[in-house]
Design goal:
This protein has about 800 residues and is mainly α. It contains 39 helices and eight strands. About 60% of the residues lie in helices and about 5% in strands. The protein has an eight-stranded mixed sheet.
Length: about 800
């Protein structure tokens, strides 16, 4: 935080009438006591007693400015200056007023005037430097701070400001020196300890960073920023469990979005070996709300769930006998059903995203689905334990819909499921009561909206958990179908690759997401990009109050919605080839009350015929599915305004080496790109038929849902790029690379190796780093670039 403030009125020269002075002194005393209205009355009286009393007008201006009465304060300061042009304080305070209003040029005039009157006015030099810094005149700002230090070498706030300026400019050694000096002068200076810790972390001096941040947090225990940064440093130091504990405790004091997000980041990299009820409760909420991407929170959640010996025993039993069938009486005993019914964390996981990272747990859920079918289709009524387990069965059914029925199923089980569906339809036709477990069992094998006249199910009375299934499988899909007519067409869809890709996503809208981590307060574009890429260099948008942004390939709306909530004031056009995907996105957008996204049916390759241009374009994971990714990139660049920004995502040739082998395995074995073909591929891969190398795909979250698995290894068109290709294209087109959005651990490791590239923008270095760490870009190269202003 940079020094501002008002000059002390007590420093004014004494020459007005004694009565005015007495009133001013009385007002000062009242103001110190917090009795501002009474103090203002004394200052008003002083100004009436002596209209030429500059000190009275100055104090009136200070009170008015503090109350937000800008014009009245300005008039008071100008009166003070008119009464005594050689009085430095009102010039200084008027400069502060202009800074507060964002008029930094006029502020500079007043600060210079104050310094001209009082050359040893250290505060004026500081304020002058602050204004110069806001105007981007860094060298002059640095000189201003140094002039202030020449007057007062122990001015801790100025050392701090110099440190902040140096850190912003990438002068890290200078930043550390200035910030250390500030903490030496003021050992309790929490902001300086925090900024020092953050700066040290950025240059990979993590042990020192941790010490500084712990000191900052000890001084200010409720500091959101210090807690967040300390947790990130602990993560980088591979102390994720310690960070989890710190944040779990911190959430009780500081339940802000930033701390919730930090919890999600560190818990995603933690596997639990002991029961921790507080962390378990926090993780349940983190998945339910959610605080992070739900697929990242699934592995730590499963590690906690598996600490329940009853559930773990049943999971192990299934896997010991797989693929043999485990009778329901052995699989779901009364004790196991009670554990499953009472486990809120398990229900949250099943409701939020495809359960990923554990083929063993998937097999257990597959067996539990079969047990549900067995229970629902037998003649006798269900036992009390099954009735009590209804919340678990409903969550399992919702999971089946979310993962698009990816679970394996043999012929006998499928025949039983078909028979159960026939029974359900017969009951519907007879207008008879529908048993809750039967409805759940059918919905666990077939999406209910595909039944004849599915709306009839909405007229049945069902318990709350079952009604949630009806909302998911009937109400929402019917809403999406109704929305199709409202989606406009921006371009036609080209024949060939575009048409094939469109067909794939019509069959399998990707991804079928449920929840997104949507934070409260968005930042303006320039500020958010500085936050994302703290070391990145770019020319800010001239006006980022309402920038126009294109999402090229919005899919089911994850990217468009997250972007809408990430940047303040956006006007978004989101396009996609697949109408089914757009309708899913539109439904989710409406449910969340987001109104600044326009959706349209369009083909990226046809955008050259559209006249509309944009300040920002996002194309994440899209261009590598075109016939020619670089031609698609050029097409998007033609729609980007000079000085505009692009966020791109491309598959890495190196990171997808296992996918390449999987595609070869698929071609050799002749697996069809159909639900049954994908299930067969997954079954064979999980059983080891593809070898150890291909089994690693079972660690990828995309392996655990039908549409995502199809996108992962069955896509009709896929290109993979290298960093050399990207670097060459950027150079050819004159584009400026700003930086990767990347896992903090990977970024830290890169900076440890390439200490002369703390901005992490040298793609040749990155190519060397990736060669030694081939899984670095497993989730794609995701990066920002800027188009020059003269293009």
């Amino acid at each position: 935080m940079k020094l501002t403030g008002q000059a002390l009125a007590d420093s004014a020269p004494l020459n007005p009438r004694d009565s005015a002075f007495a009133l001013i002194d009385a007002g000062n005393t009242l103001e110190e006591q917090g009795r501002t209205a009474e103090a203002m009355a004394r200052y008003d009286a002083a100004a009436q007693a002596d209209p030429h009393c500059a000190r009275a007008h100055l104090n009136r201006g200070n009170v008015l400015l503090a109350a937000g009465q800008i014009e009245e304060a300005r008039a008071a300061y100008q009166l003070a200056i008119a009464c005594d042009p050689h009085y430095a304080a009102p010039h200084f305070n008027l400069g502060n007023l202009y800074c507060h209003a964002g008029d930094y040029e006029r502020a500079l005039e007043n600060y210079h005037a104050a310094i001209g009157i009082k050359p040893d006015f250290a505060d004026a030099f500081v304020a002058l430097a602050n204004a110069l810094d806001r105007l981007g005149r860094t060298a002059e700002a640095k000189e201003g701070y140094e002039r202030a230090l020449a007057i007062n070498p122990r001015y801790a706030e100025v050392h701090f400001n110099l440190g902040v300026l140096a850190a912003t400019e990438g002068w890290h050694d200078q930043a550390v020196g200035s910030l250390r000096k500030a903490t030496e002068i003021r050992p309790d200076y929490a902001a300086a300890h925090y900024t020092l810790g953050k700066t040290l972390a950025s240059i990979a001096r993590l042990d020192e960073a941790e010490a500084s941040l712990r000191r900052a947090l000890s001084i200010s225990p409720d500091s959101e920023a210090s807690l967040y940064e300390l947790a990130m440093v602990l993560l980088l130091r591979r102390k994720a469990p310690e960070a989890v504990q710190l944040l779990t405790q911190g959430l009780e004091r500081i339940p802000t979005w930033s701390i919730k997000r930090a919890f999600a980041i560190v818990v995603a990299r933690t596997r639990f070996v002991g029961i921790d009820s507080a962390t378990r409760a926090a993780l349940t909420v983190a998945i339910s709300e959610p605080w992070g991407m739900t697929f990242e929170l699934c592995p730590p959640a499963l590690s906690l769930i598996m600490l329940d010996e009853r559930i773990a025993g049943s999971v192990h039993r299934v896997n010991e006998r797989w693929p043999a069938h485990v009778p329901k009486t052995e699989l779901l005993t009364t004790e196991v059903l009670a554990a499953l019914a009472a486990d809120d964390l398990l229900h949250a996981v099943l409701d939020a995203a495809p359960v990923s990272s554990s083929i063993e747990f998937e097999r257990f859920l597959t067996a539990a689905r079969c047990a549900l079918l067995e229970t629902a289709t037998r003649e006798q009524p269900p036992n009390p334990a099954d009735v009590a387990a209804l919340p678990f069965y409903a969550a399992l059914t919702r999971q089946c819909f979310i993962n698009e029925y990816v679970f394996d199923c043999d012929d006998d089980e499928r025949a039983a499921a078909i028979a159960g569906r026939a029974r359900l339809l017969a009951l519907l036709d007879a207008n008879a009561a529908i048993p809750a477990l039967l409805l759940l069992a059918v919905a666990a094998y077939f999406p209910l909206y595909t039944l004849p006249e599915p709306g009839r199910l909405l007229a049945t009375e069902q318990p709350g958990p079952v009604d949630d299934v009806l909302r998911q499988q009937v109400r929402q899909p019917l809403t999406e179908q109704a929305l199709r007519a409202s989606v406009g067409s921006l371009t036609s869809i080209a024949h060939g690759v575009s048409e094939k890709v469109r067909h794939q996503y019509e069959e399998n809208p990707y991804p079928r997401w449920v929840k997104l981590p949507i934070r409260g307060a968005a930042r303006h574009f320039n500020d958010e990009l500085r936050h994302i890429l703290a070391q990145g260099r770019f020319t800010p948008l001239r006006d980022d109050s309402h920038p126009e942004l294109l999402i090229a390939g919005c899919g089911t709306g994850c990217q468009s919605i997250l972007t809408a909530k990430r940047f303040h004031g956006l006007r978004i056009l989101a396009i996609d080839l697949s109408l089914s995907s757009i309708c899913y996105a539109l439904r989710k957008t409406q449910e969340l009350g987001i109104t600044n996204i326009e959706y349209a049916h369009a083909d990226i390759m046809k955008l050259g015929d559209v006249s509309r241009t944009f300040d920002i374009i996002e194309a994440g994971g899209v261009l590598h599915h075109l016939a020619d990714p670089f031609l698609g990139w050029r097409t998007l660049l033609s729609r980007l305004r000079p000085g505009g920004f692009m966020r791109l995502g491309f598959y890495s040739e190196l990171a997808r080496r296992h996918v390449v082998k999987a595609r070869e395995f698929i071609a050799a074995r002749g697996y069809a790109s159909t639900p049954e073909g994908i299930r067969r591929f997954r079954r064979d891969l999980a059983s080891g038929q593809g070898g150890v190398e291909l089994q690693s795909l079972a660690e990828v979250p995309d392996f655990y849902s039908m549409s995502e698995c199809r996108d992962l290894v069955f896509h009709v068109q896929e290109h993979r790029l290298t960093l050399e290709q990207i670097d060459s294209f950027l150079a050819e087109c004159g584009l400026h690379f700003i930086g990767f959005e990347l896992d903090p651990l990977a970024l830290h490791n890169y900076r440890m190796r390439f200490r002369d590239d703390l901005a992490a923008t040298n793609l040749r270095n990155w190519a060397r780093f990736e060669a030694d760490n081939p899984d670095t870009f497993l989730g794609m190269y995701q990066f920002w670039i800027q188009k020059p202003l003269d293009h």
